[in-house]
Amino acid sequence: MAIIEVNGVRKTYAGRAVVDGVSFSVDEGEIFGILGPNGAGKTTTVECVEGLRIPDAGTIRVAGLDPVADHDRVTHLLGAQLQESELQAKLTVREALELYSAFYPTPADWRPLAARLGLDEKLDTRFAKLSGGQKQRLFIALALIGNPKVVVLDELTTGLDPRARRDTWKLIEEIRDGGVTVLLVTHFMEEAQRLCDRIAVIDRGKVVALDTPAGLIRRATGSTVVSFVPSRALTGPDLTRLAALPGVETVTPPDREGALTLHGTDETVTPFVALLAELGVTAQRLRITETSLDEAFLDLTGQDL
Amino acid sequence: MPTETTTAPTAPGSRVARRRGPAAAVLIAETRLFLREPGNLFWIFVFPSVLLVILGFIPAFKETQDDLGGRRVIDLYVPISILLAMITAGIQAMPPVLTAYRERGILRRMSATPVRPSALLGAQILLHGAACLASALLVTAVGRIAYGVALPEQLPGYLLALLLAVAAVLTLGSMICALSRTTKAATAIGTGAYLVMMFSAGVWLPVQTMPDALRRIVEITPLGAASQALEQAASGSWPGWIHLLVLALWTAALGTAAARLFRWQ
To answer: Chain B contact for A68, CB < 8 A?
Structure first.
């Protein structure tokens, strides 16, 4: 069942459509990613979902409620970690947790929450003295403190070191396992690939693809990469037959070590094996790999992140 | 609050008793933060009284003067020092706090909760107002003890003028926030306004001793009107309605404008 429905949302600033007809729906209990390059309209989209911005056109429903008209009720269901927000510099972690607890009628107990986020050692530290990772973890705690059904996490791991990033990923999975739906904005491929059940790729204000991470990769042309060193030199006609295999996009001539590379699809692999058998060639150092989501993304948007 | 009683069944025991309403929680948190700014506390609470003490060292200020209706210059400086505390709190201290709350996304973060960010601004305005009144009390006590300055003879009128002056200064500070895009701008505008306000409050030259033409102009400003109203009430008469009206009009006009112009993000 969809808990977030976004339908034809548009938002224009100074005549420029930052969000241009974005639609997607997020099912209860999934981690839904919004992936896109900087300035693609990801944050504006989720800020409309949070009710912090009013769309120029289109409708948004969070658990059936309009985030602007029913803002108060939506704030009880939806916890948010905003991309660029701070807390009062001299507020301690404990005070922030107590303060935000008081905003909700039935808040989560902040002590176990702080412990789970590794903030229990930092309770008396002021916000300004926290490291980037600690600030992010505090904001996750504040997003969860009202026992929300949905959390929106915007560029959560930007600026974190790889270890802190991995810890955060684990935490997001735990949040989902606790029954909370997660809407995750990111520009990290690895993050989207690892965490998301489904991903909407947004580019220049539009959804250019919406699929599972595996589905997005399959969509990319030449998503399966086969490389091997043939046991004997292949002749011209052999190469022509290789190039004619189903799904083959390109055949790259042997490199210095004699390895040949084929860019194809899942469909390519079985006929490839059959052809080698027919030609009486064995494939040494055979590697069959998938392109990364990075490459799939490049293919979808025609640009780097 | 009704919301607290309805949550009682889901959260039994001592936790219920400890739960506070959101507005109270915001006020408590902001009070703690307010008390963590020693600079502001010094300039609002301590400095006006210190200034009064220093001025009292000038022998001429402690002599009765016929053209002041038999009062001394030091008597005039009690309400002036109180106004100085107000200007410091409302014009110097408060605007950068509020603009920083906007600039750093603190208001925005609060918008994503069931509590409106106006609760944060309200708490800050309330705290700065309370600080003005506390400083007024201290200045009055120091004047009485150190230099035998008489307590205000027309007390209700004095308190009314005091509250109107606090309201005018705080709305003026709010207006500075509304006009400033950044905290830097708020500090700059605040410092400029601070000097003008100090002059019109009579910090350098008491309004009562200004030449007639200048005094009439200064009386139209909020601090000039406040200075006149407080001085009149201090010396026993009901403060002139015209001065109280000037204060009320400034408050209403600035308050409305600030509320309209203030950007939440």
So the answer is: no
Name residues of chain A where pLDDT drops below 70. Answer: 220-222, 302-305
Other CB atoms within a 10 A radius of the CB of residue A166 amount to: 15
DSSP state at residue A109: P
Sort out which chain A residues have CB atoms less than 8 A from B7's CB and list them: 105-106
| Structural domains of chain A in order of their starting residue, each with its CATH number | 2-211 (3.40.50.300), 219-301 (3.30.70.100)
Cβ neighbours of B106 in A, within 8 Å:
85-88
Q: What is the residue range of B56's domain? A: 21-261
Structural domain contains residue B198: yes
Q: What is the pLDDT of residue A221?
A: 64
Say if B108 is an interface residue toward chain A (CB within 8 Å).
yes
- Residue A136 to residues A101, A139, A171, B109: CA-CA distances in angstroms? 18, 5, 12, 13
What pLDDT was estimated at residue A68? Answer: 94
With respect to residue B229, please indicate whether it lies within any of the assigned structural domains: yes
Q: State what percent of residues in chain B have pLDDT above 70.
A: 92
Q: Does A50 touch chain B (CB under 8 A)?
A: yes
Rounded to the nearest angstrom, the minimum Cα separation between B104 and chain A is 6
In a domain, B10, yes or no: no
The pTM (predicted TM-score) of the whole model is: 0.82
Whose CA is closest to A49, among A200, A215, A270? A200
Residue B139 lies in a domain: yes
Q: Which amino acid is at A242?
A: L
User: Residue B111: its chain A contacts at CB < 8 A?
Assistant: 52
